[in-house]
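User: I'll paste a sequence; please echo it back and then give the predicted structure.

Assistant: Echoing your sequence first, then the prediction.
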Amino acid sequence: LSAVLIALLVLVNCKLLLLLPRRQQIAGVWIELFALLMLFFYSFDLSFAFIARKVGFLITQGVTTTLYISAISILIATTIALVGAIAKLTGNGIVYGLATFYTSLFRGLPLLMQIYIIYLGLPQVGYVIGAVPAGIVALSLCYGAYMTEIFRAGIESIPRGQSEGATALGLSPGQTMALVILP
C-alpha cells in the first residue's frame, strides 16, 4: 500500500513539474532531489555536532595520508619504471619477457582490481598487509608499469649519435646510460 502511495505521489509530482517552464523544471528536480538526500542522511542516527567538531581533523588526516601514500608511491614507481625500461631495452630475452609481462599485466588490469587483489586477495594466501602499504604497493605497481613505457620511449628517442659520441669518449654502456642518455 505504501509503495502505491509513493508511486502516486511521484506521478503527481512529475505532472506538476511538467507544467513549469524547462528551467524551473530543472531547478525543481534539483531542489527535490537535494531535499530527499538530506532526509536520507537525517534518517541515520548521526551526531552532527561530533562530525562538526572532528571534520577539520579528519580532512587534515586524509590529506596527509594521501600525500604520504602518493609521495612514497611515486618514488617506488619511478624506480620500478627505470628498471623496467632498461629491462625492455636489453638484448636478454628472459629479462625482456619479464618486463613485457609486467607492463602488460599491470597496464591491462584496472587499478581498483589491483587494490582488491593486493589488499583482499593476499591475506587469502597468508600475506596480510595493512591498508596504507597495500595502497602504496598497488599504486607503485600500476603506475610503475605506465611509467616504464614512458621511460622506454624517452630512452629510445635519444638520437643514436649521443651514445656513439659517448662510446667515442671511452664511456662504458653503463656510464653512457647513466651520464648521457638518462639525464
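Residues 2-42 form one domain. The radius of gyration is 28 Å.
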